[in-house]
Design goal:
With 618 residues, the protein is mainly alpha-helical. Helix content is 56%, strand content 2%. Strands 1-2 form a two-stranded antiparallel ribbon. β1 and β2 form a beta hairpin.
Length: 618
């Protein structure tokens, strides 16, 4: 273990004497340099601050002159926080003496992490009132929001820290500040279920406003199932009769899907229907006229009479469809919860073996997501992955003869088309699409869907439809990890890891063959100048190598390390029936090009551009 790591470990464990011994013969310059050297977990000062070792913090600051602001990575509440300064770590962990020492030595009270979380926000998140008070007294800015626009007041409300919320309100925190998505502290409080904090906020003139999804705090409480908040807000003078009705109806839907309490749902739906009735001073409030019947819901319609409502209790499945209808009407298709619970209900059907109903609901949810969410939304990607895993499971069980359900080409093909459409949407939205995990995941899922689709019987028209869709994908020239094309990915073993459960098997000869047939460039290069042939060689896939070579791949083309695919093979004989001899795939032109490269003979400007490009391949 080098001395930097040793000092870091000792600081993390509070071993002051060990640190003094390790640094006993160091000059002041060397001490300062060591104190600022980072390991994977940051500096020694950050480690000591995180675990509250005050004596070590004092020693590093005073004797080693450690940089009080130098941040690093710290692990909190199951999450790695990047760029956290020592003051943030001490505040989050609740070490007030360390906080005082760091501020005394000049730490900036508002120095934030990479996500713009300040030490004050960290203390609010974990409920350290004493540190919150101390930081505010030392000029901490209560209104600095993180990258999502969440303020210190919002997070204290969401976490249910009443005394901290009270202190911030007394110090003038903006009670109506909005986040990036338009929610306020009232929304956060409604989601957490803290009625006492809710009352405080309302006394401080908090406004009942809608967020970016059109949600009021009352509806937010209904979605999360906090009946105490719903009951309180529904009886506020500022809440209209119609808002109260919708809150009760939505709360009933939450009792069906989240709490699995059908009787509880009936109670709230009855109350909502009573409120809709005409009274002495108010007119009858009818539900909006029903829209077109949704086949995924079994063409169910919302009930509008007491008799129809009471009849629901004899048909639990019909009640579950009512919950989906109510949620879609009130929240709308753009709210994430709408499609989430449609998918959830589909998964419940799948668990009971009703795969047809599951697929129908999931396709309806997927259409909703693609119409309302941003391209490559995590929720949409999750839907595609769920489809791939479900299809894979059914096909395997179908092969064993344990399922009566049959997956057909026409079940899988629409999902493949929609997944390619998702990539098209993403590419159209951004001129220079960055390499993102979500984009890579989308490409991987598409390849898995192609793998599954090839296992299903189809006629000439269906085969043409599949190839046309693959051609649409290739025309976009999408790039995955390290600049991989779909052809690189199909030849790579890492592509098999796409979710929790196995779907397709990669490298895949059949997927590679289809991509090549649909026009994939066998000479495409990744960020390290590897061709698909190099990737196939690295994965010891002789069948794929032979297929690529027959499609025109250059066997002796070199990558960024000037290695050919053959040099990446573990041996000449790779498959059971495939023997690769380099001489069979090298032309006289290739030998001449390699000779020019090996002997560094001048050629640029002396031959055609096509010949120059051919030489540079080698």
């Amino acid at each position: 273990m080098d001395i930097t790591t040793a000092v870091f470990v000792a600081a993390r464990n509070g071993k002051l004497k060990l640190i003094q011994k390790l640094l006993s013969n160091k000059t002041p310059e060397e001490l300062e340099a060591l104190a600022e050297e980072k390991t994977q977990g940051g500096t020694p000062l950050l480690a000591a601050s995180r675990y509250g070792h005050l004596e070590v913090v004092d020693y590093l600051l005073e004797h080693c002159k450690a940089n009080v602001e130098l941040g690093g990575s710290v692990y909190f509440d199951g999450e790695t926080i990047e760029g956290a300064p020592p003051l943030w770590a001490a505040s989050a962990a609740g070490h007030l003496p360390v906080v005082k020492t760091l501020l005394k030595h000049g730490a900036s009270v508002n120095n934030a992490t990479q996500t713009n979380s300040t030490p004050l926000r960290a203390a609010c998140f974990d409920g350290h009132l004493d540190i919150v008070r101390y930081l505010v007294e030392h000029k901490a800015d209560m209104e600095v929001a993180n990258r999502h626009g969440h303020t210190c007041l919002m997070i204290s409300c969401y976490k249910g820290h009443k005394e901290i919320a009270k202190f911030l309100l007394e110090r003038g925190a903006d009670v109506n500040r909005k986040s990036v998505k338009g929610n306020t502290a009232l929304h956060d409080c409604a989601e957490s279920g803290s009625l006492d904090i809710m009352k405080m906020l309302l006394k401080c003139n908090a406004r009942m406003e809608r967020d970016g999804y059109g949600m009021t705090p009352l509806l937010a409480a209904s979605v999360t199932g906090h009946t105490n908040i719903v009951e309180y807000l529904a009886h506020q003078p500022r809440t209209s009769r119609e808002e109260g009705i919708e809150a009760l109806e939505l709360l009933g839907a939450t009792f069906v899907d989240k709490k699995r309490d059908l009787l509880g749902a009936m109670k709230y739906w009855r109350r909502a229907m009573e409120l809709r009735k005409a009274g002495e001073k108010s007119a009858h409030l009818s539900k909006p006229p029903p829209g077109p019947a949704v086949p995924a819901y079994g063409c169910a319609q919302e009930v509008s009479t007491e008799e129809d409502l009471e009849a629901l209790i004899t048909d639990p499945d019909e009640m579950r469809m009512q919950a989906l209808l109510v949620r879609e009407r009130i929240l709308g298709p753009s709210h994430p919860d709408t499609s989430y619970y449609i998918r959830y209900r589909g998964a419940v059907y799948a668990d009971s073996g009703n795969f047809e109903r599951c697929i129908s609901l999931w396709k309806y949810a997927l259409d909703m997501q693609q119409s309302n969410l941003d391209p490559l939304s995590p929720m949409t990607a999750s839907s595609f992955l769920s489809f791939a895993e479900l299809f894979s499971f059914i096909l395997k069980e179908q092969h064993k003869g344990t399922l009566s359900t049959q997956i057909t080409f026409h079940d899988v093909m629409p999902v493949l088309e929609k997944s390619v459409r998702e990539v098209e949407r993403a590419v159209a939205k951004r001129d220079n699409l960055p390499e993102t995990p979500q984009f890579t995941k989308a490409l991987s899922i598409i390849l898995h869907l192609i793998f599954l689709l090839q296992k299903l019987p189809c006629g000439p028209e269906e085969d043409h439809q599949m190839k046309q869709t693959v051609y649409r994908l290739l025309k976009l020239n999408p790039r995955g990890p390290n600049g991989f094309t779909p052809l690189h990915m199909a030849a790579d073993m890492a592509t098999r890891c796409v979710g929790r459960y196995p779907v397709g098997s990669f490298p895949s000869v059949s997927v590679v063959a289809l991509l090549v047939e649909c026009g994939a460039d066998v000479e495409s290069r990744d960020c390290e100048n590897n061709t698909p042939l190099h990737i196939a060689a690295s994965n010891d896939s002789a069948d794929i190598m032979m297929l690529l070579l027959e499609a025109g791949a250059h066997f002796d083309a070199t990558n960024g390390e000037k290695k050919t695919a053959f040099e990446l093979l573990n041996g000449m004989v790779v498959g059971e029936h495939v023997v690769l001899f380099p001489v069979n795939f090298v032309s006289l032109q290739c030998l001449a090009a390699r000779t020019i490269v090996r002997h560094r003979l001048p050629y640029k400007g002396l031959i055609s551009e096509e010949m120059e490009a051919f030489i540079e391949l080698h």
